[in-house]
Structure formats: C-alpha cells, structure tokens
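Recall the central idea of this unit: under ordinary conditions, the amino acid sequence of a chain determines the structure it adopts. In this exercise we apply that idea directly, starting from the sequence alone.
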Amino acid sequence: MTELQATKLLEEIKRHNSQTAFRELYNLYYDRLFRVAFYYLHNDEWAQEVVLDVFFNLWNNRLKLLIPDNFDKYSFILVKNA
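Accordingly, the structure predicted from this sequence is:
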C-alpha cells in the first residue's frame, strides 16, 4: 500500500462517507496496527481493542479529518498513544 492509495481512501471517506473505502483502509492497515499495539501491550485482546478504537474514532471524526501527509506514521502514532 502506498501513501497515495491511503490518501485517496481517506479523501473518499471524508468527502463521500464511503464505507467501502473505510473497509478497504481497515483491511489494509489492521494487521500492521495490531502488531504495533501488541508490541506495546503483549495481549491479543487489548491490542485488538486499541486498533478497533482507533478505527472507530477515525470513522466518527471523518468529516473533520485532516488528511496526514504520511498515514503510516500517523496511524502508528494513534495506536501508540491509545
């Protein structure tokens, strides 16, 4: 997944409330973000909950979402902070 693809999906989510684009972004990033969360938490259930919370907040705030230059770094920071 390139940053350009992530940016296009985020724009589609923001502008068109696209559940399809959100699902695609979720499917592309879930495994990576889960591994990051597990690295910090050492617990499958907690790591899953953190990643789901990050995506839940992303969806709920989609209309006022500021699209980052680098979604990889941004999403990792969201998981780390959660």
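The chain has a mean pLDDT of 93.
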